[in-house]
Design a protein that fits this description.
It is found in: Cell inner membrane. This is Protein transport protein HofC. It is a multi-pass membrane protein. The protein is mainly alpha-helical and 398 residues long. The protein is built from 17 helices and 3 strands. It has 3 domains: 43 residues; 92 residues, Receptor-associated Protein (Up-down Bundle), CATH 1.20.81; 216 residues, Up-down Bundle (Receptor-associated Protein). Helices cover 75% and strands 6% of the residues. Strand 1 and strand 2 form a beta hairpin.
């Protein structure tokens, strides 16, 4: 569906009522045929020039509202049609109505969502498929909405923790550039009148300022080339694998990344276990929800070892990515037959711990960055005024 275009239409119903809406179609002729297939008489059909980005908040709202409608007793097709009528964004109206039409034609809900991979990530497809297999679609949608809300809150908390340090660092860089390019040249003219050697710190700062002014364009192009190279490497499997291993070994970001991934893994495993799905199949569904090749490979190895007869806790322990608490609770749940409860407890534990780590990240970065900024600006100020402090000695020597 990536090649589809959004079309706005006006048409007459069989009863002569004027209707309007939007739909996705690859071309005008197909859109016209779709309207006629619904027994509508098209009056106007216009292609929307540009569509806004698919927002994660809209995706969460749709699943949350759908879960509520299903629990209220509405059918899936009726619920989607109702959401399509009430959604404020035209592109979502057209998408939801398209999915409802696919359901009316006999298509499974998960298969209908697979047609929109750029809108619904693998986690959505996996959870919806789980709900279809177990007959608990409303519960799976509710749990999915809760998981997505938690992830959004965590992402917002991390962004909030990083926003203040980024602002401070940006202001520090702006001040340093202004002092180096505007203030320091004026001091350099004064320094030339001194009949005494400049301090080593001042000479070093002036040398850095001259290098920035002379090689500024080259440095900027090099920086842009590095950023472009990193953006290109982000799509490479080996780079993603190496980056994830590096992040997990970092002292501050590592626990945050590990906690977020473990929370997602145990949430999906808990939902599949509560739905009565076998653990092997649950692992396969969880593997599909992970985009990082590092974690996908780890879960694939765990699944193969369990299929060969290894206990679940032992396979998790050999993966070397799970905490001792994970191994202990999984081993207890496997022995007592309460594995679903233990997985749910682990998901909640890692979720709460990750939120706490995000708060700790903010409390750690703010004072650290203030110290670094103070050292940089303080060094520049001392380097500029240090020769003036020695001016009296130079005049006495003269």
């Amino acid at each position: 569906m990536a090649g589809n275009q959004l079309w706005r239409w006006r048409a007459l119903s069989p009863q002569g009522e004027r209707l309007a809406g939007a739909l996705w179609a690859p071309d005008k002729q197909t859109a016209w045929t779709v309207l006629q297939g619904k027994e509508l008489v098209p009056l106007e059909l216009r292609r929307c020039a540009q569509q806004s980005r698919w927002q994660a908040q809209h995706r969460y709202d749709v699943i949350h509202q759908l879960a509520t409608l299903l629990q209220a007793g509405l059918t899936l097709s009726a619920g989607l049609s109702l959401l399509a009528q009430q959604h404020p964004a035209r592109q979502w109206q057209a998408l939801l109505q398209s999915v409802a039409d696919d359901l009316s034609a006999g298509c499974a809900f998960s298969d209908a969502l697979k047609k929109w991979p750029h809108v619904f990530p693998p986690l959505y497809i996996s959870m919806i498929k789980t709900g279809e297999l177990t007959g608990k679609l409303d519960e799976c949608c509710r749990q999915l909405a809760h998981q997505q809300k938690t992830q959004q809150q965590l992402s917002a908390k991390v962004k909030k923790a990083l926003r203040y340090p980024v602002i401070i660092l940006s202001l520090a860089v702006a001040v340093v550039l202004a002092m180096v390019t505007l203030v320091l040249p004026e001091f350099a003219a004064i320094y030339k009148t001194f009949n005494t050697p400049l301090p080593a710190l001042t000479r070093a700062v002036m040398g850095l300022a001259n290098a920035l002014q002379e090689q500024g364009a080259v440095l900027l192009l090099s920086l842009l080339a590095i950023i472009s190279g990193l953006l290109f490497l982000r799509r490479k499997r080996r780079w993603q694998y190496a980056t994830q291993r590096l992040l997990l070994t970092s002292p501050v970001i590592g626990p945050l990344v590990r906690g977020q991934k473990l929370s997602q893994i145990f949430t999906v495993l808990s939902l599949t276990q509560q739905a009565g799905i076998a653990f092997i199949q649950g692992l396969e569904s969880t593997e599909e929800t992970l985009e990082c090749p590092f974690w996908r490979e780890k879960l694939q190895t765990i699944r193969h070892r369990i299929m060969q007869g290894m206990p679940i806790w032992s396979a998790l322990n050999d993966a070397a990515i799970f905490t001792p608490l994970c191994i202990q609770l999984v081993r207890t749940g496997e022995a007592s037959g309460a594995l679903d409860t233990m997985l749910s407890n682990l998901a909640q534990h890692h979720n709460e711990q990750t939120f706490q780590q995000a708060d700790n990240l903010a409390s750690l970065l703010e004072p650290l960055l203030l110290i670094v900024t103070g050292l940089i600006i303080g060094t520049l100020v001392v380097a500029m005024y240090l020769p003036i402090f020695h001016l009296g000695d130079a005049m006495s020597a003269g």
